[in-house]
Specification:
alpha/beta; 26% helix; 31% strand; elongated
Length: 599
């Protein structure tokens, strides 16, 4: 017996776990009921269980690319804690939150191209994705074989259950290469398929399709082949008037035909399509009015009889169909398309792409949040098709994806221009405790706090401010990690190289006491340049210790006694400044002289 829930399993029963596998909770529940388990889980699926279990225990989020309701995916999710997420389309990826890391696995029957496309999109959301393409090799090989056979066949038959995931994917893949692809469950369905003697027929089947059904289909195909008239038997037939009429082209609405223009009027073009009556195309339904008698054109049958015995034709549907096919081809090839914004709607923008309506979600309009979607109405933009619903003929496009590609190309080109050792202009964008981030033409580089100044820096804001334009020197470039190291101080002269010019002997300058020792006080004249005031030069009178005259943090006036740039020493004096000030305050002798009248 087969069961759908644990509650249906009798106590102590022998239980076979299906190949799709089940979750940890189901295993534990069966063991609790005393059941004897025979685990028939596919080895590839079991390997996925182990991957997601290990990731969950390590605290790594799990994402499964597959159908959430599929038994295999349900089983995989049963080994995640907290519960994993599933994605099956671009919208699912867009709904994911930004993540630092995640393990990405696949349903074993997933089409590889779809898995790769979704993973590429998820890289925009996940900083460090761990991608594991866990597609079963047998499934992958069967899909490749089906694609190869379909490319050579006129008619492709896919045998399998309509609820089977891998069978449905085989059908979808075959349909891309062979438009006349049919999905059947039994041989009886072959009767509804039109097959001619010249058709090359390909057959494939899903992994779970019973051999007996496959053999029955092949046998039925052999019977059909024997019943289809060959060219030899047709030539031997006696042709009656009915036979002559049957050799004429058979038309039906929706059929595409090729004919020769035989007459042109003011409003219509008459076309010979090999039918017992000519076809009529209204000029308004032509792809181009630049036609002349004798031209061969392609058109679609709208009506076999327009009421006057003529075949009504149109080229508009063909144009739309070709545009759709071209859009699908460009999407599959990863090429961009041009579109024009038509209407702002809830959640995004409607655009015209080669005559086909496309929806651009608001999140896909720009690299940044778009407040006024209507601003894009009337704009021509380059788009990437990110999703196609072939059944409903709907497409979802992204302008953001194109901008990201262009931005990546621009950055790559920009990275190639950076040269270690060169000096470039930049703008300070933001500050952190460890340094300043500087924009050098669209790429942010880091000036570490130690490279901001030749002197000691407590915080970058002591040296630079946000929005300030500065020159920086490129120290190191790492394109792979997109990191660039810069230096601000190396664009400035080293303090000691110009100390003799800036602080000539005898000059009086101000400085800040930054350090005190038993033999004197060090005064900072500028960042990276300190001078020593010996204890004997700290005051007018003899002092027992330096602190009797100055303290750390004091701003003092000092006279330069000596500058030794090679030894990086500057001798300073506070005492001489005080002496000079004392002399300046003594009145000159004339101030004390008295006039004769005062004697």
């Amino acid at each position: 017996m087969s069961v759908d829930s644990i509650s249906e399993v009798p106590q102590g029963a022998k239980v076979v776990i299906r190949s799709h596998g089940v979750g940890r909770a189901e295993i534990e529940a069966l063991e609790a009921r005393g059941c004897v388990l025979q685990d028939a889980t596919c080895p590839f699926v079991a390997r996925i269980h182990e991957m997601v279990r290990a990731a969950s225990e390590a605290g790594t989020p799990v994402i499964v690319v597959g159908e959430r309701a599929h038994p295999e995916v349900v089983g995989i999710l049963g080994w995640t804690n907290p519960p994993g997420r599933t994605v099956m389309c671009a919208q699912d990826v867009d709904a994911l939150p930004a993540m630092e890391r995640a393990l990405i696995v696949s349903q074993t029957t997933m089409v590889r191209s779809r898995f790769d496309a979704l993973c590429a999109r998820m890289k925009e959301k996940i900083a460090s994705p761990d991608i594991r393409p866990t597609i079963c090799p047998a499934t992958r090989d069967r899909q490749a074989e089906a694609t190869e056979i379909a490319a050579r066949a006129d008619v492709m038959i896919v045998i399998g259950g309509r609820q089977s995931s891998n069978s449905k994917k085989l059908y979808q893949l075959a349909k891309k290469s062979c438009p006349r692809t049919y999905f059947i469950e039994t041989a009886d369905e072959l009767d509804e398929i039109q097959i001619s003697a010249s058709d090359t027929i390909g057959i494939t089947a899903g992994a779970s399709t019973p051999d007996c059904i496959i053999k029955e289909v092949v046998a039925r195909m052999n019977d059909i082949e024997k019943k289809v008239p060959t060219e030899e038997t047709q030539e031997q037939a006696v042709m009656t008037m009915e036979d002559v009429e049957s050799t004429l082209v058979q038309l039906r609405p929706g059929q595409v035909v090729t004919g020769t223009v035989v007459q042109i009027t003011e409003d219509e073009v008459c076309v010979n399509v090999g039918y017992k009556s000519d076809g009529i195309v209204k000029k308004s339904d032509l792809s181009s009015t630049d036609v002349k008698i004798g031209d061969e054109i392609e058109a679609e049958v709208v009506k076999v009889n327009d009421g006057e015995g003529n075949v009504l034709l149109s080229q508009k549907n063909i144009i739309n169909r070709k545009a759709w096919e071209e859009i699908v081809a460009k999407q599959e090839a990863g090429e961009f398309v041009e579109g024009v914004g038509k209407e702002a709607v809830k959640g995004g923008l409607l655009a015209d792409v080669m005559g086909v309506r496309a929806f651009i979600p608001a999140s896909q309009l720009s690299l940044r949040y778009v407040e006024k979607i209507e601003e894009f109405v009337g704009q021509t933009m380059t788009l990437k098709i990110i999703e196609i619903d072939k059944t409903k003929k709907r497409i979802v496009a992204s302008r953001k994806a194109v901008l990201l590609v262009e931005e990546a190309a621009r950055k790559k080109e920009l990275w190639n221009t950076f040269e270690v050792g060169s000096v470039v202009k930049g703008v300070v964008r933001r500050l952190a405790d460890f340094g300043a981030f500087v924009d050098i033409g669209g790429v942010d580089g880091l000036v570490h706090v130690t490279d901001l100044s030749w002197g000691r820096v407590k915080h970058p804001s002591d040296v630079v401010s946000v929005g300030q334009e500065i020159d920086v020197k490129i120290l190191n470039v790492d394109p792979e990690r997109e990191r660039i190291s810069l230096s601000y101080k190396q664009t400035q002269p080293r303090p000691w190289t110009v100390a003799g010019e800036k602080y000539p002997v005898g000059s009086v300058v101000e400085g800040k006491v930054v350090r005190i020792t038993t033999f004197g006080a060090f005064v900072e004249l500028e960042p990276g340049l300190d001078g020593l005031v010996h204890i004997s030069q700290c005051a007018l009178t003899r002092i027992a210790k330096v602190e009797d005259a100055v303290n750390v943090g004091d701003i003092v006036r000092v006279k330069v006694l000596d500058v030794n740039t090679e030894a990086k020493r500057i001798s300073l004096s506070i005492r001489e400044v005080l002496e000079d000030e004392a002399l300046d305050s003594v009145p000159e002798a004339d101030e004390f002289a008295m006039d004769d009248d005062q004697i």
